[in-house]
Amino acid sequence: MTAMTSHKTSALSVNGLVKTFDVSAPWLNRVVERKPRQYLQAVNDISFEVPLGGCLSLVGESGCGKSTVARLVTGLYRANGGEMRFAPGEDGKPLAAQMIFQDPYASLNPRWRVKNIIAEPIRELKLRNTAAEIEERVVELLKTVGLSASDGDKFPHEFSGGQRQRISIARALAGEPRFLVCDEPTSALDVSVQAQVLNLMRKLQDEFGLTYLFISHDMSVVRHMSDRIAVMYLGRIVEEGETEALFAKPRHPYTQLLLETIPNVKDPHRDRVVAGGEVPSPLKPPSGCPFHPRCAMATARCSSELPAVRTLAGGTRVACHLVTDE
Amino acid sequence: MTTDVTKTGAAARPGLLKRIRNSDVWWSFTRSKSAMIAAVILAVLVSAAVFAPLIAPQNPYDAAQLDMWKAELPPIWEPTGEWPYLLGTDTQGRDMLSAILYGTRISIVIGLFSVVLSLLIGMTAGLCAGFFGGVVDNLLMRFGDITLSIPTILIAILVSTVVRQMLPDDLREIGAAAVLVFAIALSSWVQYARTVRAQTIVERNKEYVQAARLLKVPARRILAHHILPNTLTPVLVAATLNFGMAILTEATLSFLGIGMPPGQPSLGTLIRIGNQFLFSGSWWIVLFPVIQLCLLVVVVNILGDWLRDLLNPKLR
Ligand SMILES: Nc1ncnc2c1ncn2[C@@H]1O[C@H](COP(=O)(O)OP(=O)(O)OP(=O)(O)O)[C@@H](O)[C@H]1O
Ligand code: SF4
Ligand SMILES: [Mg+2]
Predict the structure, then answer these.
(1) What is the pTM of this model?
(2) ipTM of the complex
């Protein structure tokens, strides 16, 4: 892919990232049923840069590989190819990434008190020395995310979804990261609570100079949060550009489709699968442009040839045969 | 299911007793008559067994206290019954009540230790298999499958026979209890391993474990601090039910003559000895140990069932 030129320094640059999952049946079944090994290409040659102190959002339908990218970036998965480079922080060490997870119920250990959950990163990374210092820091973090000191003694099940997500944020901040990966942090929350949590995240970004890699399937949330947006489809980035440019003039047919389905205020809980056909299985991706079975503008070329990524004048990158730099 | 336990802890601060009394477990307990009756009976049986040396009229192991003239006395309510032999005596003049109390003690101790040992084996195997997956998982669980395909009692017979042969003669008598514990544990760990493995796989993929992985918390600590506590509830239920099974297995082995020797009779040994007199008319030598064994196993199982229903949200 073409290297992009960004005006800001980037906190993270990712180049040609690939992740393949081995989803073969167990060995015995394969031998008996004479099936070959089966691989799932969850992330396919992805490149992007996250501007330092900014926010890049990954959007796309369920199963397009957003979470896989998040896990690759944080090191929970090992990539099969490509490279990732974190910019060195002030102390010369690469920025440490922490993560905020989607499910506020599964992301906190139900048997730990909140103060211990928040203290875990402090203890593990040895960021404070004495028990008193750790406790003081935990209280400080609780207050930062809008909870009270006494909440530390409670267990996660005593909190609502939004409060749990605040606890998650506090835990992520406890590791003193400069880089936060947020995997759909608000998609499990009520709309009214979503806004509060998103505003908190923006406030924290300004306060601590955090860089976000933000993941969502909700275009209106993404618009609120991000400086740049990368639209993913079946493991590939099909369009990437500045938020306002992308909203004002979406170039890729898939991006246009996504923008048409922005949830409106009256009906916020719309289907997260956009209209216009089924998402193909990533096990058997279509030939040529992965979007061609659903694309209204597809031509014969689209089903045979994978469109190259082109960088347009405004810095937007698009992968579509029909898009030209006019 | 986890909430019950955490809620108990969450009420925090006000003393343990109050915490227990405020908990859901206690609440459900006070509403289940069968569980309460079973608990009372179990408490009586266990404390009688624990304090056997203080309560029992006789020390059945002490040959000097045995009186051959008092052999085969019937229970006290029969015309020829004699004080203090409430439940009669056996052919050596041993007081049946004392023998049963001491025998219960041995049965409970062996049952307890074998459950603890098989818990240790099963939980370690299950945690490792579930967490590390791959080859470790395959090896451990296939070994478990093989173990399960052989009847429990057969494994126990096999293990206890082999281990006995390996022990020197003078240790066989003393080591009998240890051999039994070992044999029963080896034949019953698979159930725990399976339960813990399944739960571990569920927990391992939860996001709180991934949050810990992000911090590079060592696997050992993730297992001990995060995953293990969240697998305990189902294991606790299985352990209670298996405690009853372990006592029965021990009794069976002793009944077959490869368990506790007649010098230290467990309930199973008593039943085996008594069995020989069943047709000679001395029914009490076998009947009372049988009743005691049934009672013990039944109350343990009732408590286990109650615990299972309580902790299984699907059944509520
Ligand atoms: N550990 C795994 N093993 C095998 N396949 C996986 C694994 N993780 C993800 N996949 C597959 O990779 C593809 C991308 O999954 P991913 O979770 O990244 O999607 P996503 O964009 O985050 O979707 P969602 O919006 O539902 O969270 C899916 O088809 C999924 O089935
Ligand atoms: S390349 Fe063809 S199929 Fe793909 S998005 Fe563009 S027009 Fe549609
Ligand atoms: Mg996801």
Answers:
(1) 0.80
(2) 0.84
